[in-house]
Write a structure and sequence with these properties.
477 residues, 60s Ribosomal Protein L30, Chain: A, 4-stranded mixed sheet, 2 domains, 2-methylcitrate dehydratase PrpD, alpha+beta, 7% strand, two-stranded antiparallel sheet, 20 helices
Length: 477
């Protein structure tokens, strides 16, 4: 008979003190709306405007009608709402539907250094929770949003190479962060929040393989995370216990998922005083953020007179993690919207050819345009050893023209980031365009929703206000 080794006692991660998870929950349990700086509240409102717009824009995005049809076939009624079509579902299913829609266009906000999309998980989870509870005030909602968004960014920063390990940080850290935001709406104390965190962790998942394969499951991921966050928070409120050492245990986040490659100080230092929420970006292009610098360089080359027909070849240099995510050759035969969204060669070809990249750039039949496919075929994407492997912003493009000239441009800043932010007018224009694109919403309908967000801190039932103001599709969905 084989010998049986004795089990080792539970040991904390060498980087996180025992009790780190409870310490985190104790800290956020003390936060109050009055603690939020005005600049943070402004960003939270921008999150809402941006995310509600991209949800509406995704009404007919591949995979979203199918998901909605499946969920409504299984559920005829519920305490929450799938915003597209305003069908009633259970709170976990509504969170899934809205989360998938929020991410389907790959147009949603992102904390670039942390590599997390936040609102596609946070807003659906909090909206479903608030709608089930009823009577949640705008201030309570904004505070819960701040909890989720701040922790999502800090978890992504602390676990600095999660994407490089093959995780999808939006999902993995989003379920943890959103469960704590939902727990705040449920008025859980520190112990209850720790249970919500543990129950979310028990469901945590999210592989990057779906983005590398360019498949529709990629856009469902934030919905899965939002669904799990809602379920975990409500079960914690019902008295179900979750893992106590979610972050620090020897089978916890740091040790099991991150191989102890974690910087705990980025999670805890300045928490509640220094706000990472102010560092979020709003996307100007509806595709993977890893391609945005190259897109900006393509648009710049077009503005400077470089034309697609004059291009002999091009090379795009990216950091290793970006290259792994968007660097494969463009395969037009796949006829895949997700593949186009996660392909730097296609995105650069669109930018150089059209002088712009917008919602229509990643639709059929545009993604199989023979001229764009041929141009993308002359673009090579490489991992540039001169770029820090996990850096998301830097890119270089070198173009060889048929007349023998060589043009090279580099950039280290992406449009939409705090260093080069979208203006309020640009953000509102994106909101209007998304709602018109997906729902056929009129300007007046869109403005009604924008006004509900603008006055959210005065709302006495924030979920009802958002759901009521969200436009219905102009034609049958």
């Amino acid at each position: 008979m084989a010998s049986v080794l004795p089990l080792k006692p539970e040991l904390p991660s060498p980087l996180l003190e025992d009790g780190a998870s409870l310490k985190l929950c104790e800290t956020i349990s003390r936060w109050r709306y009055e603690d939020l700086p005005p600049a943070v509240v402004r960003v939270l409102k921008s999150f809402l405007i941006d995310t509600l717009g991209v949800i509406g824009g995704a009404a007919r995005a591949p995979g979203i009608p199918v998901l909605h049809a499946r969920l409504t076939r299984w559920e005829r009624d519920g305490a929450a709402t799938a915003l597209i079509g305003k069908r009633r579902l259970s709170p976990p299913s509504a969170a899934l539907a809205n989360g998938a829609a929020a991410h389907a266009l790959d147009f949603d906000d992102q904390h670039d250094p942390a590599r997390v999309h936040t609102s596609c998980v946070t807003l659906p989870a909090l909206l479903a929770t608030a709608e089930d509870l009823g009577g949640v005030s705008g201030r309570e909602f904004l505070l819960a949003y701040a909890v989720s968004a701040e922790l999502h960014a800090r978890l992504g920063l602390a676990c600095y190479n999660s994407l490089g390990k093959g995780w999808h940080p939006t999902m993995l850290f989003g379920v943890l962060a959103a469960s704590l935001g939902a727990g705040r709406l449920l008025k859980l104390g520190a112990a209850g929040l720790n249970n919500a965190l543990g129950l979310a962790f028990h469901q945590a998942c999210g592989s990057a393989q779906s983005m590398r394969d360019g498949v529709l499951s990629k856009r469902l991921g934030p919905g899965f995370a939002a669904r799990a966050a809602v379920l975990g928070a409500f079960l914690a409120a019902d008295g179900i216990t979750g893992t106590r050492r979610t972050l620090e245990g020897n089978a916890g986040l740091a040790a099991l998922y991150e191989r102890n490659e974690v910087r705990p100080e980025l999670l805890f230092e300045g928490l509640g005083r220094e706000w990472r929420i102010l560092e979020y970006s709003f996307k100007p292009y509806p595709c993977c953020r890893c391609s945005h610098t190259a897109i900006g360089l393509g648009i710049r080359m077009h503005a400077e007179g470089v034309r697609a027909e004059a291009l002999e070849s091009a090379e795009i240099g990216l950091g290793e993690v970006n290259w792994l995510t968007v660097g494969e050759p463009y395969d037009v035969k796949r006829d895949s919207v997700v593949h186009a969204q996660f392909n730097a060669a296609y995105s650069f070809a669109r930018a150089l050819s059209d002088g712009r990249v917008d919602l229509r750039s990643y639709q059929r039949p545009q993604i199989t345009d023979p001229a764009i496919a041929a141009l993308a075929g002359r673009v090579r994407v490489v991992s540039d050893p001169a770029i820090e492997p996990t850096a998301i912003e830097p890119a270089r493009v070198e173009v060889a023209l048929r007349d023998g000239r060589i043009t090279q441009l580099t950039a280290t800043v992406m449009k939409g980031s705090p260093q080069q932010p979208l203006t309020d007018a640009e953000l509102l224009a994106k909101f209007h365009d998304c709602l018109e694109f997906g729902l056929g919403a009129t300007r007046a309908e869109a403005d009604r929703l924008a006004q509900a967000v603008a006055s959210i801190e005065r709302s006495t039932d924030v979920a009802r206000g958002i759901v009521d103001a969200f436009p219905l599709p102009a034609s049958k969905f």
